[in-house]
């Protein structure tokens, strides 16, 4: 028994000793023996994180016997995976080697593309330093761009190559800029979310947020999952269509990525996002998921006006191959919600009754299949097929207290003619609901071929079809309690509006000709567009619109300078780009013109009698044409020893952009004399026949869409990018632009006299015709200097932006004060003569504009200095901050004998963000 007991105790002691915990000690150093104190050490598979002290040393205690892997990382060095077999205490000295990072390839500003056509490329690195909240912020990096405070509580429209855009009447530039995300076009042809009497007034809550006529609202585009953006400002490839100004191609992050989270805060907004790229190796499939939330206020002290954005995305990609082909299938599901809210302070407004809410939900599903030929000798190279479904559910709700100052007639008839009407309730809360549900279906097939005829040709041919339909219920409100007393429209269902179908074919040949040491690269394309679901009584439906496009680049022979080659090329091109009218332009809602004929308002409500005439006008313009932009450009590009310079001169002529203007009709009605019935002599409600009357007529206006807007742009864009200077890893980037824009109304304008001018007891008896109306001139010149230092070993990236507007000029150009002619109430036309200027009535058509209105105004230098910095800690944590307007220089100036004091300088705007990678 004693022997057994001794054996048992000895065996237990042996087991205890063999299972004792061990210690792993070590240090991190570089090749020179310098301790690396900001690294990370992870013991796997225990997932234990080691602490590195000021000497670069670390220690792991209580480690059971076994086999482990020690993962050592430090920013700027190659990661080290060290297998460790633990059978006793261990001491390790780990030396990390510098990472082979080509810092000269790291750009934190926009790069000018080296391909055909003028475009800027902005990658993830640049956006990380920029710290954008929405796509609007990215435009700062373009030539001519400038940092501005975010304005996330109003519609953010895009205006390429326009330094000082005009908001009203010239929206074709914004509407004609196409956004594409992973090849899926963000089509706005079916957007109809306008509300009568509110959209045209940008001071109203809905007017400031409605993007029906301006295309994509850039607030809705999150930047957190973007890998790269290409902004095509010049002549766009024939593959892209239904545009006039340019194309924005957004590529999102794909492939395996760690968990990442971003948190940003500034004086206006709070943002949070998270994302991850998953790898399913057995199925050769990757899945990227991400989501984000943004909340912004109009200003830090205004909690009643807000904007929210919630977005989520799942993107998958699978690859497989056969003996001849490589197949890539990509698909994405996206959900995006934006909410605009306006509440009014009950202490200063109508007891809290007024409120505005706009909620836009968007659901998108896209599929892409690419088939690439592995046989490099085959003429067929690639086939790309894509299809997408994009559905929006946009809802607007408005509550507004409405009060009348007098006995106002309620002109809400649904049929034409004269009829008895009632009076508007003196005080009530109007409630309006808008249901806007655009559905967009698209299909695109692109084949790529390569063949040899005199030289190598790469030919793209394709077919694209975009179908757009609105399934919404439109505006819904009680006709007895309208939002305004000017009730010029009636509720209309959007789903009753026909669909929009854009069918396009395109072909493009890219080839290069070589003569000696010269190389001439060309991209020659053509796009043909048809509106196939539009009635033939529309001009836009007749025939096929052809859009020729040509981009060219002549590469000059290299010239040796101090032993290094100087590369130079000359570029140029010409192109036409067409934008088809959207549904809201093709199918506007009917206009209801209500004119009071009798307003007999008795003290006794039972004796009151009101009568009105209603005329229904169809403002559809079947002569509306496709808007066409014609542009050409010339440029030069130089590259020497890592330094690059590009200069581009362009002219862009859009002469038939869409605009809404006043049109007039002669309205005949009967005018009853309320004073012909003595209110003191009646004992019952009078009859209409009791009143004396006379037949009269007058001109009344309504809005119609035409092709009257002209935007003529001319400019020079330039960018110089230096190589990174050795030692300090600093790059200098200078870019900017000179822009000159003329915006004018191409068509004759019409106007009636003021209602205060009474002619024989009647108003609006004449209609004058003027040759000119809008005519604006704008010019500005700016230069931006960016100095950025990229220091990978310190985990620091810092950039200083000096953004200077040298001058900004604006002018309302002179126009004739006198009409060329006028129409009388019978519709007869008369030439306006010199004698008419002294006529007691016709003299009122002299607009008598003050000459000061047409003075050219120039604002001199406006310089601001901004700072952006990013610090990376242990490769897992990135802390960034920015300060806009750290320094401001806006000197006072004198113009036309007046001193302009610019003491009202903007305060600095700053914010911070935190990025975590797991």
TrEMBL record:
Report the superkingdom from the record. Answer: Bacteria
Question: Which keywords are on file for this protein?
Answer: Signal
Pfam families noted in UniProt: CarbopepD_reg_2, Plug
Residue intervals of the TonB-dependent receptor plug domain: 117-246
> Could you confirm whether the keyword Lipid biosynthesis appears in this record?
no
Q: Which residues form the signal peptide?
A: 1-19
Name used for this protein in its record: Carboxypeptidase-like regulatory domain-containing protein
